[in-house]
Amino acid sequence: MALKLYNTLTRQKAEFVPIEPSNVRMYVCGPTVYDYAHIGNARPVIVFDVLFRLLRHIYGPDHVTYVRNITDVDDKINARAARDYPGLQLNEAIRKVTETTEKQFHSDIAALGVLPPTYEPRATEFIRRQDGREDMVSLIDTLVRRGHAYVAENHVLFDVESMPDYGRLSNRTLEEMEAGARVEVAPYKKGPMDFVLWKPSKPGEPAWPSPSGILVPGRPGWHIECSAMAGALLGPVFDIHGGGIDLTFPHHENEIAQSRCAHGTAAMANVWMHNGFLQVEGEKMSKSLGNFVTINELLKEWPGECIRFAMLSTHYRQPINWTEKALGEARRTLDHWYELTEGLPGDGPMCADVLQALEDDLNTPQAFAALHELRSEAAKGSIGAARCLKASAQLLGLLQLERAAWLSWRPSAMNLDEARVASLIDARLAARRAKDFKESDRIRDELAGMGIALKDRKNKETGEIETTWEVAR
RNA sequence: GGCCACGUGGCGGAGUGGUUACGUAGCGGACUGCAAAUCCGCGUACCCCGGUUCAAUUCCGGGCGUGGCCUCCA
């Protein structure tokens, strides 16, 4: 079966046909590095990591190019830098904010089992380049030269009237947008929907020599960076562009406008993919509601693979409701999968049903159903099913650890004396052997009070009772 | 106000014009000193109102509800 993907441009699922099967090219909008990434940021990162893995599986690991950018020039970054490092010069403070945030982002998503993309360009590296690659300034100059952009009061603005099918991605016409507009329009704009490609910098703010004959230094608008980085690293037309659904308008619409008008192409990317929005315990995630969940905090309470599993248990285009309960279910399932696949090589055969589910627009819930089926067969003793389970789960970025490493995971707040746990378990087993059940139950209760749940099992060969334990939930 | 999604069993969550999703919780059983874990078995759900159809949860229309975008929030 061929890979099918839902395309926001056509509002349909269609067979994916790469421009060059020897080099499948994908771009995904990455984070703006000014604060801890939250669980909503994690969704596209995980979802498109699964797509990256699937494409590598289908076309070969060397035949997929994946670009996910880092946005390190932005007003929010400037504001955060001024707030957190009032003593430093702004540019120095900005560098501190972006460097530490980027480092944190990388360690957070690595814990979620996310592969590094092929390229991870920073926006500031593509404002002006010396190597002849496309950059933001050259893109803006081209847009002005071709009559798609104009200079006004030291800004460069994109002229949306110059693009006849502006609005196709978000499926709205200029009239509709203007009718609903609630924004005050800057007086220097020719059209109310025109957007900023370049703007002047205030003294002390990050600044670069401006394009288009503007004499004062400035900085880029938000959308132009993705056009420049995608153009430089993937070419004027590439296969897949991904991101959160909230970016459809205006960000992606404007990326398309810039890239197509600068390159004179009919498309920027052939397939546009958008993941659905995330809510937390049934409510919108927001700082004021106090339910703002960062990846970093979550990783203190849950193993990364749990978070990944929970994220993938909803289809990527559906809205997802992020709950503790789902994380608990994910952990139990993974416990079981790890137990059944312990010590097996990861190069087993791929489950056809898992692959088929993923090839149907990344239907991860259906893939999980197939994995549950394998789990059931593996539990009955099928080594083949267990090997298949491991290989197939690994395609999803799960079961990446040794079982011992999985079992040794602890919540960061848990301060356990593991030697004491082990001696209590031994004492309990001794009490049991002596049929002193009162004492053995007392020890079990004591351990439960420490947050430890026990599991007894009879060793089939020796007939002895063996006890394992885990962190209770 | 304009545009766009979504609404499935207690909960999570796929899918389909007529036939079992799956998981989890719950219930029954096996096992166990008792639990937990594990294994076996059990659920007959698809927001409301019309329409199309032999047949609709699935298609069409309307309504209600929730959410997103239109404010450089993934």
> Which fold does the CATH topology of the largest domain refer to?
Rossmann fold
Measured as a percent range, the helix fraction is: 40-55%
CATH superfamily of the largest domain: HUPs
The CATH class assignment of the largest domain is Alpha Beta
The helix/strand class is: alpha/beta
Percent range for β-strand residues:
15-25%
Number of strands: 15
Whole-number average pLDDT?
Answer: 92
> Radius of gyration, Cα only, in angstroms?
26 Å
Backbone shape: elongated
Spatial arrangement of strands, main beta sheet:
4-3-9-10
CATH architecture of the largest domain: 3-Layer(aba) Sandwich
Number of spatially distinct domains: 3
Major sheet? 4 strands, parallel
Poorly predicted sequence stretches spanning 5 or more consecutive residues: none
In angstroms, what separates the terminal alpha carbons? 41 Å
What is this structure's SSE topology?
Blueprint lengths: L3 E4 L4 E4 L8 E5 L10 H21 L4 E5 L6 H10 L5 H22 L24 H10 L3 E4 L2 E4 L15 H7 L14 E6 L17 E3 L3 H11 L3 E7 L3 H16 L5 E7 L2 E3 L2 E2 L10 H7 L2 H9 L7 E3 L1 H18 L10 H8 L4 H16 L3 H13 L7 H5 L10 H16 L3 H13 L2 E7 L6 E7 L2
Parallel strand pairs: 3-4, 3-9, 9-10, 11-13
Antiparallel strand pairs: 1-2, 5-6, 6-7, 7-8, 11-12, 14-15
Helix pairs in contact: 2-3, 4-7, 6-7, 9-10, 10-13, 11-12, 12-13, 15-16
This protein binds one RNA strand of 74 nucleotides through helix 1, helix 5, helix 7, helix 10 and helix 12.
Please give a structural write-up.
With 473 residues, the chain is an alpha/beta fold. The model has no long low-confidence stretch (mean pLDDT 92). The protein is elongated and about 90 Å long. The protein folds into three domains: 18-275, Rossmann fold (3-Layer(aba) Sandwich), CATH 3.40.50; 301-311 and 323-408, Four Helix Bundle (Hemerythrin (Met), subunit A); 418-471, no CATH class. The chain has helices at residues 39-59, 75-84, 90-111, 136-145, 174-180, 224-234, 248-263, 295-301, 304-312, 324-341, 352-359, 364-379, 383-395, 403-407, 418-433, 437-449, and strands at 4-7, 12-15, 24-28, 64-68, 149-152, 155-158, 195-200, 218-220, 238-244, 269-275, 278-280, 283-284, 320-322, 452-458, 465-471. The two termini are 41 Å apart. Helix content is 43%, strand content 15%. The structure holds one RNA strand of 74 nucleotides.
